Amino acid sequence: MPLLELKHISKSFAHAKGVLPVLEDISFSVEEGEFVAIVGPSGCGKSTLLRIINGIVPATSGQVLYRGRQVDGINLECALVFQSFALMPWLSVKSNIEMGLEARGVNSKERERVVNFYIDKVGLDGFEEAYPRELSGGMKQRVGLARALAVEPKVLLMDEPFSALDALTAINLREELLDIWQAPDMSVHTIVMVTHIIEEAVELADRILVLSSHPGRLTADLKVNLSRPRDRRAESFNALTDKVFSLIEERA
Q1: ∠ at Cα 52 (246, 40), nearest 5°?
Q2: Quick count: other Cβ atoms within 10 Å of Cβ 183?
Q3: C-alpha of 1 from chain center
Q4: Across-strand partners of 81?
Q5: What is residue 186's predicted lDDT score, i.e. its pLDDT?
Q6: Using an 8 Å Cβ cutoff, are 52 and 194 in contact?
Q7: Start-end of H helices in 55-166
Q8: CB neighbourhood size of 18 (10 A)
Q9: Are strands 78-81 and 18-30 parallel, antiparallel or unpaired?
Q10: Burial class, 195, CB count within 10 angstroms (exposed 0-12 / middle 13-18 / buried 19+)
Q11: Residues with Cβ < 8 Å from 69, sequence gap 6 or more?
């Protein structure tokens, strides 16, 4: 049984001129321990699909199954990292990270232990009492990542998490994300990430799902048979990157 399964997911939104279809008949599964990247043209519904998986946005039709059971409402076994950081500006780093734990009724002593663990994991030691306005983009995203990890999800959902960062910071955070994903002392070993950067998908993922545009349909499911760590200068890396780019361009 796959950890996560989508069956014939479609999504439409009400529009001034009628109904706007965003996603159409999308089906795929994710095994426990997989790193799956979703790519496609701008506006193809990638972020909407991620929110449907999490249960934030309901599908118009179709099913999302988690461990074989239909998900109705927010799936508390998932956590979402946003592109825009989505931090509370009036809260410190520590308070931002413990938000989810507090909402779930975790007592203060346990919150302290968990928050300190993940602050260390994402490299935020010494910034516990800082506020978002005092942090760089990379540090803000570390806070967002720690907040998602702190609720100890089984599936980590990431919506273009590094696209707002400078190139060097993004490289460092991608490497750290792989370390977290592979670490035996972490609760999360399954990641589904939306990205518009094809090289990022090839570098990180076990599988790459390609969506078409308007409405988004699943047009390719590619296995990434490259050993880690991956060399972005290797011929095989560039060949797969070119293949994914061609598929996106063709389906756009």
Answers
A1: 10
A2: 12
A3: 22
A4: 158
A5: 85
A6: no
A7: 93-97, 99-103, 108-121, 137-150
A8: 7
A9: unpaired
A10: buried
A11: none
Phi and psi based region of residue 45 (left: phi greater than 0; alpha: psi -120 to 50; beta: remaining): left
Q: Is 220 helix (H, G, I), strand (E, B) or coil?
A: strand
Instruction: Tell me if 39 sits within 8 A of 248, measured CB to CB.
Output: yes
Among 27, 36, 33, which Cα is nearest to 3's?
33
E strands within the chain? 4-15, 18-30, 35-39, 61-66, 69-70, 78-81, 155-159, 190-194, 207-211, 218-223
């346990």: which residue's tokens?
Answer: 110
Sequence-separated contacts (24+) of 31-35 with Cβ below 8 Å: 31/2, 31/3, 31/190, 32/2, 32/3, 32/154, 32/189, 32/190, 33/189, 33/190, 34/3, 34/190, 34/191, 34/206, 34/207, 35/181, 35/190, 35/191, 35/193, 35/204, 35/205, 35/206, 35/207
Kindly compute the dihedral angle of the four CA atoms of residues 27, 244, 42, 156, in this order, to the nearest 10 degrees: 60
| All residues at 6 or more sequence positions from 221 whose CB lies less than 8 Å from its CB, including other chains | 28, 207, 208, 209, 210
| Residue 208 and residue 242 in contact, taking contact as beta carbons nearer than 8 Å | no
User: Where do we find the tokens 């570390």?
Assistant: 142
- Which amino acid, residue 153? P
Q: What is the mean pLDDT of each run of 10 residues along the chain (252 residues)?
A: 95 85 95 96 90 94 95 92 85 92 89 92 90 90 92 94 86 90 89 94 96 91 93 94 91 62
Residue 28: phi and psi, rounded to 5, are -165, 165
| Rounded (10°) CA dihedral 214, 2, 192, 91 | 120
User: How many other β-carbons are positioned within 10 Å of the β-carbon of residue 153?
Assistant: 20
The span from the CA of 203 to the CA of 237, in Å, is 8
Residue 51 CA from chain centroid, whole number: 10
